Amino acid sequence: xxxxxRWWGPKDLIRLAHxxxxxATGIVTALHDIPYGETWSAEAIAERKAMITxxxxxxxxxxxxxxxxVHEDIKRRTGDWQGLYDRYCQTLRxxxxxxxxxxxxxxxxxxDWTRTELRHPxxxxxxxxxYNAHEFAAFECHMLRRPGAEADYPDAVLTTAxxxxxxxxxxxxxxxxxxxxxxxxxAFDRYDIEGLxxxxxxxxxxxxxxxxxxxxxFLRAIVPAAEEAGVRLCIHPDDPPRALLGxxxxxxxxxxxxxxxxxxxxxxxxxxxxxxxxxxxxxxxxPAIAARYADRISFVHLRNVxxxxxxxxxxxxxxxxxxxxxxVVDVLLREQARRKAAGEANWRLPFRPDHGHELLDDVGKxxxxxxxxxxxxxxxxxxxxxxxxxxxxxxxxx
Length: 398
Ligand code: DNO
Description:
Layout: E1 2-6, H1 16-22, E2 26-29, H2 42-53, E3 61-66, H3 72-76, H4 81-97, E4 102-106, E5 117-121, E6 127-131, H5 133-143, H6 155-167, H7 170-181, H8 193-202, H9 208-229, E7 232-236, H10 254-263, E8 269-274, H11 275-279, H12 286-292, E9 297-302, E10 305-307, E11 313-315, H13 325-341, E12 350-353, H14 373-394
Parallel strand pairs: 1-2, 1-12, 2-3, 3-4, 4-7, 7-8, 8-9, 9-12
Antiparallel strand pairs: 5-6, 6-11, 10-11
The structure holds D-mannose.
Protein backbone atom coordinates (compact mmCIF):
# COMPACT_ATOMS: atom_id res chain seq x y z
CA UNK A 1 0.00 0.00 0.00
CA UNK A 2 1.32 3.42 -0.92
CA UNK A 3 1.87 5.52 2.19
CA UNK A 4 0.48 8.99 1.57
CA UNK A 5 -0.03 12.17 3.56
CA ARG A 6 -2.40 15.07 3.16
CA TRP A 7 -0.49 18.27 2.44
CA TRP A 8 -2.45 21.52 2.43
CA GLY A 9 -0.09 23.17 -0.04
CA PRO A 10 2.62 25.81 0.30
CA LYS A 11 0.85 27.46 3.26
CA ASP A 12 0.93 24.23 5.30
CA LEU A 13 3.21 24.50 8.36
CA ILE A 14 4.16 20.87 7.74
CA ARG A 15 6.70 20.90 4.92
CA LEU A 16 7.24 18.30 2.24
CA ALA A 17 10.52 17.31 3.88
CA HIS A 18 8.66 16.59 7.14
CA UNK A 19 6.28 14.33 5.27
CA UNK A 20 9.22 12.37 3.94
CA UNK A 21 10.58 12.08 7.48
CA UNK A 22 7.23 10.63 8.56
CA UNK A 23 7.81 7.92 5.97
CA ALA A 24 5.20 8.84 3.36
CA THR A 25 6.08 9.10 -0.30
CA GLY A 26 2.70 9.95 -1.80
CA ILE A 27 1.23 13.43 -1.52
CA VAL A 28 -2.49 14.05 -1.25
CA THR A 29 -3.33 17.65 -1.98
CA ALA A 30 -5.72 20.04 -3.70
CA LEU A 31 -5.63 23.54 -5.15
CA HIS A 32 -7.55 25.00 -2.23
CA ASP A 33 -7.21 28.58 -3.46
CA ILE A 34 -9.27 28.00 -6.58
CA PRO A 35 -12.93 28.86 -5.89
CA TYR A 36 -15.41 25.99 -6.11
CA GLY A 37 -16.69 25.45 -9.62
CA GLU A 38 -13.73 26.94 -11.50
CA THR A 39 -11.51 24.87 -13.77
CA TRP A 40 -8.08 23.93 -12.42
CA SER A 41 -5.83 25.12 -15.23
CA ALA A 42 -3.04 22.97 -16.62
CA GLU A 43 -0.60 25.67 -15.46
CA ALA A 44 -1.85 25.69 -11.85
CA ILE A 45 -1.68 21.90 -11.73
CA ALA A 46 1.82 21.87 -13.21
CA GLU A 47 2.95 24.45 -10.67
CA ARG A 48 1.73 22.34 -7.71
CA LYS A 49 3.23 19.21 -9.20
CA ALA A 50 6.58 20.96 -9.64
CA MET A 51 6.58 21.94 -5.94
CA ILE A 52 6.06 18.31 -4.95
CA THR A 53 8.84 16.97 -7.14
CA UNK A 54 11.24 19.95 -6.82
CA UNK A 55 13.54 18.15 -4.39
CA UNK A 56 14.13 14.83 -6.12
CA UNK A 57 15.92 13.45 -3.06
CA UNK A 58 12.57 13.32 -1.22
CA UNK A 59 11.16 10.93 -3.80
CA UNK A 60 7.63 12.35 -3.55
CA UNK A 61 4.84 12.20 -6.11
CA UNK A 62 1.36 13.73 -6.27
CA UNK A 63 -0.68 10.57 -5.76
CA UNK A 64 -4.20 11.76 -5.05
CA UNK A 65 -6.28 14.92 -5.34
CA UNK A 66 -8.39 15.48 -2.26
CA UNK A 67 -10.69 16.96 -3.30
CA UNK A 68 -11.95 18.54 -6.47
CA UNK A 69 -14.88 20.15 -4.64
CA VAL A 70 -18.40 19.71 -5.94
CA HIS A 71 -20.26 23.02 -6.16
CA GLU A 72 -23.60 23.23 -4.31
CA ASP A 73 -25.30 24.01 -7.64
CA ILE A 74 -24.27 20.53 -8.82
CA LYS A 75 -25.65 18.91 -5.65
CA ARG A 76 -28.92 20.86 -6.03
CA ARG A 77 -28.95 20.81 -9.82
CA THR A 78 -29.61 24.52 -9.90
CA GLY A 79 -28.01 27.53 -11.60
CA ASP A 80 -25.38 26.79 -14.21
CA TRP A 81 -25.02 23.09 -13.35
CA GLN A 82 -24.28 22.19 -16.96
CA GLY A 83 -21.39 24.65 -17.08
CA LEU A 84 -20.16 23.30 -13.75
CA TYR A 85 -20.16 19.73 -15.14
CA ASP A 86 -18.12 20.95 -18.12
CA ARG A 87 -15.57 22.69 -15.93
CA TYR A 88 -15.29 19.64 -13.65
CA CYS A 89 -14.60 17.49 -16.73
CA GLN A 90 -11.96 19.93 -17.90
CA THR A 91 -10.27 19.79 -14.49
CA LEU A 92 -10.21 15.98 -14.71
CA ARG A 93 -8.67 16.14 -18.20
CA UNK A 94 -6.02 18.59 -17.01
CA UNK A 95 -5.19 16.38 -14.03
CA UNK A 96 -5.05 13.25 -16.13
CA UNK A 97 -2.69 14.90 -18.59
CA UNK A 98 -0.42 15.82 -15.69
CA UNK A 99 -0.39 12.18 -14.57
CA UNK A 100 -2.47 12.76 -11.43
CA UNK A 101 -4.85 9.85 -11.66
CA UNK A 102 -6.88 9.56 -8.44
CA UNK A 103 -9.48 12.17 -7.51
CA UNK A 104 -11.46 12.11 -4.27
CA UNK A 105 -14.66 14.14 -3.83
CA UNK A 106 -17.72 14.10 -1.64
CA UNK A 107 -21.40 14.81 -2.14
CA UNK A 108 -22.38 16.00 1.35
CA UNK A 109 -24.76 18.95 1.10
CA UNK A 110 -23.56 22.21 2.70
CA UNK A 111 -21.21 20.79 5.37
CA ASP A 112 -18.23 18.46 5.04
CA TRP A 113 -17.04 16.54 8.15
CA THR A 114 -18.69 17.77 11.29
CA ARG A 115 -17.42 17.87 14.88
CA THR A 116 -18.45 19.89 17.93
CA GLU A 117 -15.07 19.93 19.67
CA LEU A 118 -11.75 20.44 17.93
CA ARG A 119 -9.61 20.12 21.06
CA HIS A 120 -10.98 17.55 23.45
CA PRO A 121 -8.26 16.94 26.08
CA UNK A 122 -6.63 13.53 26.23
CA UNK A 123 -5.11 11.88 29.29
CA UNK A 124 -1.57 13.13 29.78
CA UNK A 125 -2.07 16.10 27.41
CA UNK A 126 -2.85 16.34 23.74
CA UNK A 127 -6.20 16.79 22.04
CA UNK A 128 -8.68 14.89 19.89
CA UNK A 129 -11.63 15.78 17.68
CA UNK A 130 -15.01 14.90 19.17
CA TYR A 131 -18.70 14.97 18.27
CA ASN A 132 -21.06 15.55 21.18
CA ALA A 133 -24.65 14.74 20.29
CA HIS A 134 -26.01 17.19 22.89
CA GLU A 135 -23.88 20.06 21.57
CA PHE A 136 -25.00 19.45 18.02
CA ALA A 137 -28.60 19.30 19.27
CA ALA A 138 -28.07 22.58 21.17
CA PHE A 139 -26.75 24.13 17.97
CA GLU A 140 -29.68 23.05 15.84
CA CYS A 141 -32.47 23.51 18.35
CA HIS A 142 -31.37 26.67 20.16
CA MET A 143 -28.85 28.56 18.01
CA LEU A 144 -30.02 27.76 14.50
CA ARG A 145 -33.60 27.14 15.68
CA ARG A 146 -34.25 24.74 12.81
CA PRO A 147 -37.95 23.88 12.72
CA GLY A 148 -38.46 20.21 13.54
CA ALA A 149 -34.88 19.60 14.72
CA GLU A 150 -36.14 18.21 18.07
CA ALA A 151 -37.65 15.23 16.28
CA ASP A 152 -34.14 13.98 15.39
CA TYR A 153 -33.07 13.47 19.03
CA PRO A 154 -34.11 11.33 22.01
CA ASP A 155 -35.45 13.26 25.00
CA ALA A 156 -32.35 12.66 27.10
CA VAL A 157 -30.15 14.37 24.50
CA LEU A 158 -32.61 17.29 24.21
CA THR A 159 -32.51 17.79 27.97
CA THR A 160 -28.71 17.84 28.08
CA ALA A 161 -28.70 20.12 25.05
CA UNK A 162 -30.99 22.64 26.74
CA UNK A 163 -28.88 22.58 29.90
CA UNK A 164 -25.72 23.15 27.82
CA UNK A 165 -27.32 26.04 25.97
CA UNK A 166 -28.68 27.70 29.12
CA UNK A 167 -25.27 27.55 30.75
CA UNK A 168 -23.32 28.56 27.63
CA UNK A 169 -21.53 31.89 27.23
CA UNK A 170 -21.35 33.80 23.98
CA UNK A 171 -17.84 32.48 23.47
CA UNK A 172 -18.98 28.87 24.04
CA UNK A 173 -21.56 29.36 21.29
CA UNK A 174 -19.04 31.01 18.98
CA UNK A 175 -16.64 28.11 19.56
CA UNK A 176 -19.36 25.61 18.74
CA UNK A 177 -20.19 27.37 15.48
CA UNK A 178 -16.48 27.51 14.55
CA UNK A 179 -16.04 23.81 15.34
CA UNK A 180 -19.02 22.82 13.22
CA UNK A 181 -17.73 24.91 10.29
CA UNK A 182 -14.14 23.66 10.58
CA UNK A 183 -14.64 20.68 8.29
CA UNK A 184 -15.08 22.85 5.25
CA UNK A 185 -11.75 22.74 3.44
CA UNK A 186 -10.16 25.79 1.83
CA ALA A 187 -11.10 29.37 2.39
CA PHE A 188 -14.58 29.41 0.95
CA ASP A 189 -18.11 28.88 2.18
CA ARG A 190 -17.86 29.22 5.95
CA TYR A 191 -21.37 30.13 7.09
CA ASP A 192 -22.71 32.18 9.94
CA ILE A 193 -26.10 31.29 11.41
CA GLU A 194 -28.01 33.38 8.85
CA GLY A 195 -25.96 32.05 5.95
CA LEU A 196 -26.49 28.50 7.12
CA UNK A 197 -30.26 29.06 7.36
CA UNK A 198 -30.26 30.31 3.78
CA UNK A 199 -28.26 27.30 2.61
CA UNK A 200 -30.61 24.87 4.36
CA UNK A 201 -33.58 26.64 2.80
CA UNK A 202 -32.07 26.14 -0.65
CA UNK A 203 -32.22 22.36 -0.01
CA UNK A 204 -35.81 22.41 1.27
CA UNK A 205 -37.15 20.60 -1.81
CA UNK A 206 -34.28 18.14 -2.14
CA UNK A 207 -35.02 14.85 -0.44
CA UNK A 208 -32.90 11.72 -0.43
CA UNK A 209 -34.12 10.49 -3.82
CA UNK A 210 -33.60 13.87 -5.44
CA UNK A 211 -30.06 14.10 -4.06
CA UNK A 212 -29.34 10.59 -5.34
CA UNK A 213 -30.68 11.60 -8.78
CA UNK A 214 -28.44 14.66 -8.78
CA UNK A 215 -25.38 12.58 -7.92
CA UNK A 216 -26.17 10.04 -10.64
CA UNK A 217 -26.70 12.82 -13.21
CA PHE A 218 -23.34 14.32 -12.22
CA LEU A 219 -21.58 10.95 -12.44
CA ARG A 220 -23.09 10.20 -15.84
CA ALA A 221 -21.72 13.53 -17.04
CA ILE A 222 -18.21 13.25 -15.61
CA VAL A 223 -17.29 9.55 -15.51
CA PRO A 224 -16.78 9.35 -19.30
CA ALA A 225 -14.36 12.30 -19.08
CA ALA A 226 -12.57 10.60 -16.17
CA GLU A 227 -12.27 7.37 -18.16
CA GLU A 228 -10.80 9.22 -21.15
CA ALA A 229 -8.39 11.09 -18.90
CA GLY A 230 -7.28 7.90 -17.12
CA VAL A 231 -8.54 9.28 -13.80
CA ARG A 232 -10.22 7.26 -11.05
CA LEU A 233 -12.87 9.22 -9.18
CA CYS A 234 -13.59 8.02 -5.67
CA ILE A 235 -16.42 9.31 -3.53
CA HIS A 236 -15.75 9.98 0.14
CA PRO A 237 -18.44 8.76 2.56
CA ASP A 238 -20.47 11.11 4.71
CA ASP A 239 -18.94 12.11 8.04
CA PRO A 240 -20.76 11.36 10.27
CA PRO A 241 -22.75 8.85 8.22
CA ARG A 242 -26.24 10.14 8.96
CA ALA A 243 -28.57 12.97 7.94
CA LEU A 244 -27.55 16.25 9.57
CA LEU A 245 -29.49 19.50 9.94
CA GLY A 246 -32.39 17.94 8.08
CA UNK A 247 -30.17 17.51 5.01
CA UNK A 248 -30.12 14.12 3.35
CA UNK A 249 -26.86 12.28 3.13
CA UNK A 250 -26.51 9.55 0.55
CA UNK A 251 -23.10 7.93 1.05
CA UNK A 252 -23.50 6.65 4.60
CA UNK A 253 -23.99 2.88 4.42
CA UNK A 254 -23.11 -0.26 2.50
CA UNK A 255 -26.40 0.04 0.64
CA UNK A 256 -25.70 3.68 -0.34
CA UNK A 257 -22.25 2.76 -1.61
CA UNK A 258 -23.70 -0.11 -3.65
CA UNK A 259 -26.27 2.19 -5.20
CA UNK A 260 -23.62 4.73 -6.24
CA UNK A 261 -21.19 2.17 -7.66
CA UNK A 262 -23.94 0.33 -9.54
CA UNK A 263 -25.46 3.52 -10.96
CA UNK A 264 -22.43 4.04 -13.18
CA UNK A 265 -20.51 0.77 -13.43
CA UNK A 266 -17.02 1.90 -14.31
CA UNK A 267 -13.62 1.56 -12.66
CA UNK A 268 -13.50 5.36 -12.87
CA UNK A 269 -16.48 5.51 -10.50
CA UNK A 270 -14.96 4.26 -7.27
CA UNK A 271 -14.88 4.64 -3.52
CA UNK A 272 -12.62 6.33 -0.98
CA UNK A 273 -12.82 3.86 1.89
CA UNK A 274 -12.84 6.10 4.95
CA UNK A 275 -12.85 3.84 8.01
CA UNK A 276 -13.42 6.78 10.36
CA UNK A 277 -16.45 8.22 8.58
CA UNK A 278 -18.15 4.88 8.05
CA UNK A 279 -17.05 3.65 11.47
CA UNK A 280 -19.05 6.42 13.20
CA UNK A 281 -22.27 4.67 12.15
CA UNK A 282 -23.55 1.82 14.33
CA UNK A 283 -25.07 0.30 11.17
CA UNK A 284 -21.69 -0.07 9.45
CA UNK A 285 -19.40 -3.11 9.63
CA UNK A 286 -16.32 -1.51 8.11
CA PRO A 287 -14.19 -4.59 7.32
CA ALA A 288 -17.28 -6.13 5.65
CA ILE A 289 -17.85 -2.98 3.57
CA ALA A 290 -14.18 -3.01 2.57
CA ALA A 291 -14.43 -6.65 1.49
CA ARG A 292 -17.72 -6.18 -0.38
CA TYR A 293 -16.53 -3.26 -2.49
CA ALA A 294 -12.81 -4.05 -2.51
CA ASP A 295 -12.48 -3.97 -6.29
CA ARG A 296 -13.89 -0.44 -6.47
CA ILE A 297 -11.73 1.12 -3.73
CA SER A 298 -9.25 3.62 -5.20
CA PHE A 299 -8.11 5.45 -2.09
CA VAL A 300 -8.17 4.75 1.63
CA HIS A 301 -8.40 6.87 4.80
CA LEU A 302 -7.47 4.89 7.91
CA ARG A 303 -8.74 6.28 11.19
CA ASN A 304 -10.77 5.01 14.14
CA VAL A 305 -13.62 6.28 16.30
CA UNK A 306 -15.15 5.17 19.60
CA UNK A 307 -18.93 5.50 19.55
CA UNK A 308 -21.14 6.26 22.54
CA UNK A 309 -24.79 5.25 23.04
CA UNK A 310 -26.25 8.76 22.58
CA UNK A 311 -24.70 9.22 19.11
CA UNK A 312 -21.56 11.01 20.31
CA UNK A 313 -18.18 9.77 19.19
CA UNK A 314 -14.55 10.41 19.84
CA UNK A 315 -11.65 10.11 17.42
CA UNK A 316 -9.66 7.24 18.89
CA UNK A 317 -6.11 5.99 18.35
CA UNK A 318 -5.72 4.60 14.84
CA UNK A 319 -5.62 1.05 16.18
CA UNK A 320 -8.06 1.74 19.01
CA UNK A 321 -11.76 2.51 18.73
CA UNK A 322 -14.53 0.35 17.31
CA UNK A 323 -13.18 -0.64 13.92
CA UNK A 324 -10.93 -3.67 13.61
CA UNK A 325 -8.11 -1.98 11.72
CA UNK A 326 -6.10 -5.16 11.31
CA UNK A 327 -9.07 -6.77 9.54
CA VAL A 328 -9.41 -3.77 7.21
CA VAL A 329 -5.71 -3.73 6.30
CA ASP A 330 -5.88 -7.47 5.66
CA VAL A 331 -8.72 -6.97 3.16
CA LEU A 332 -6.79 -4.20 1.42
CA LEU A 333 -3.55 -6.18 1.13
CA ARG A 334 -5.46 -9.11 -0.39
CA GLU A 335 -7.18 -6.78 -2.86
CA GLN A 336 -3.79 -5.39 -3.86
CA ALA A 337 -2.52 -8.92 -4.40
CA ARG A 338 -5.53 -9.62 -6.62
CA ARG A 339 -4.85 -6.49 -8.71
CA LYS A 340 -1.17 -7.34 -8.99
CA ALA A 341 -1.91 -10.91 -10.11
CA ALA A 342 -4.38 -9.53 -12.67
CA GLY A 343 -1.54 -7.48 -14.16
CA GLU A 344 -2.95 -4.07 -13.25
CA ALA A 345 -0.28 -1.39 -13.58
CA ASN A 346 -1.62 0.69 -10.68
CA TRP A 347 -2.14 -2.19 -8.27
CA ARG A 348 -0.80 -0.40 -5.22
CA LEU A 349 -3.53 1.23 -3.13
CA PRO A 350 -2.82 4.72 -1.81
CA PHE A 351 -3.80 5.18 1.84
CA ARG A 352 -3.22 7.91 4.35
CA PRO A 353 -3.44 8.12 8.10
CA ASP A 354 -6.58 10.22 8.40
CA HIS A 355 -6.66 12.74 11.20
CA GLY A 356 -4.49 12.33 14.27
CA HIS A 357 -4.47 13.52 17.83
CA GLU A 358 -2.50 16.65 18.65
CA LEU A 359 0.40 15.20 20.62
CA LEU A 360 3.58 16.55 22.21
CA ASP A 361 4.85 19.51 20.16
CA ASP A 362 1.71 19.49 17.98
CA VAL A 363 -0.21 21.30 20.70
CA GLY A 364 -0.55 25.02 20.01
CA LYS A 365 0.64 24.82 16.40
CA UNK A 366 -1.53 26.41 13.73
CA UNK A 367 -2.16 23.23 11.76
CA UNK A 368 -5.55 22.25 10.34
CA UNK A 369 -7.87 20.59 12.87
CA UNK A 370 -7.21 16.86 12.70
CA UNK A 371 -4.00 17.30 10.72
CA UNK A 372 -1.09 17.72 13.16
CA UNK A 373 2.35 16.26 12.37
CA UNK A 374 3.10 14.00 15.33
CA UNK A 375 -0.38 12.52 15.78
CA UNK A 376 -0.50 11.53 12.13
CA UNK A 377 3.09 10.30 12.17
CA UNK A 378 2.10 8.01 15.06
CA UNK A 379 -0.98 6.77 13.18
CA UNK A 380 1.02 6.11 10.02
CA UNK A 381 3.72 4.28 11.97
CA UNK A 382 1.18 2.06 13.69
CA UNK A 383 -0.60 1.22 10.45
CA UNK A 384 2.74 0.59 8.72
CA UNK A 385 3.49 -1.92 11.46
CA UNK A 386 0.20 -3.75 10.93
CA UNK A 387 0.67 -3.70 7.17
CA UNK A 388 4.22 -5.02 7.31
CA UNK A 389 3.34 -7.80 9.75
CA UNK A 390 0.30 -8.95 7.76
CA UNK A 391 2.15 -8.85 4.46
CA UNK A 392 5.02 -10.88 5.93
CA UNK A 393 2.75 -13.41 7.57
CA UNK A 394 0.64 -13.99 4.46
CA UNK A 395 3.36 -13.65 1.83
CA UNK A 396 1.67 -10.61 0.27
CA UNK A 397 3.22 -7.57 -1.41
CA UNK A 398 3.35 -4.44 0.72
C1 DNO B 1 -11.59 15.22 6.65
C2 DNO B 1 -11.59 14.70 5.29
C3 DNO B 1 -12.72 15.25 4.45
C4 DNO B 1 -12.49 14.87 3.01
C5 DNO B 1 -13.55 15.29 2.08
C6 DNO B 1 -13.36 14.62 0.75
O1 DNO B 1 -10.60 15.34 7.26
O2 DNO B 1 -11.58 13.33 5.29
O3 DNO B 1 -12.75 16.64 4.56
O4 DNO B 1 -11.34 15.49 2.56
O5 DNO B 1 -14.81 14.99 2.57
O6 DNO B 1 -14.06 15.28 -0.23
